Here is the input.
Amino acid sequence: MALLTHDYYCPKLGMASEMRILSPEAILSGEEKPRATLFLLPPEGESGLSLLTETKIAALSEEYRAVIIIPPCLEGCYTDMVFGYPFYQSLKYVREYIETYLPGLAPLKGKTAVAGFGIGGAAALRWALEEPDYFSFAGSISGLLDPSSAAGDYFTERRLTDLYGTAEERQKKEEDFLSLCKTSAQSGIYLFSAKDDPGFDSTCLAAKALGEKARVSTVQGKSTGKTRSDQLGVFFKLFLGGDE
Here is the structure.
């Protein structure tokens, strides 16, 4: 298993950025073609390191012969900030950058998925819903899918305002997201949330809007690191096949 931490210049931000790429060594050396590519988005405020240390992502990459691309989340939370940088556009640019400068690892239409944890789940779903022909599967694991949620913990009122704007603007963003859930042709979606997770209610709203397009799983209590890691395994099995 090989892990690359790749620094690059992102013109969408006008500054340096980074990504982590996890791949079986045979794929990285060019001896083997990847079976699939997964953009995996860490939760709010994280670089993605926790996904490498607290989940079984390395074993899943090896088992399914998949390349895993992990862009950092950090302060932008994968959204085009009202007061700040266009981080959602910078996320989408990652694919363009890889296609141009790392063509041997370039994701292929119809063989690419996107999934995220926490606020990364919101960005993963939005990207897949906007591009249903490109992404064959998408997932949100313990996702925070409602920008109009009340302030708390990491998302202070100041941070919510910087990210999404006023309360009225946040409500409009929530309505737009739910509308996208209803109208998108994307049909390969997996949603998971424990009932005591902060984003449980928002996951239920998204599930209702998606209807039969989504497979939904919930459990009692609150998600743990093991829960999220196990759910990543479920996601891979639904995406690429295998017994649950």
In short: The chain is about 40% helix and 20% strand. The radius of gyration is 17 Å. The mean pLDDT is 95.
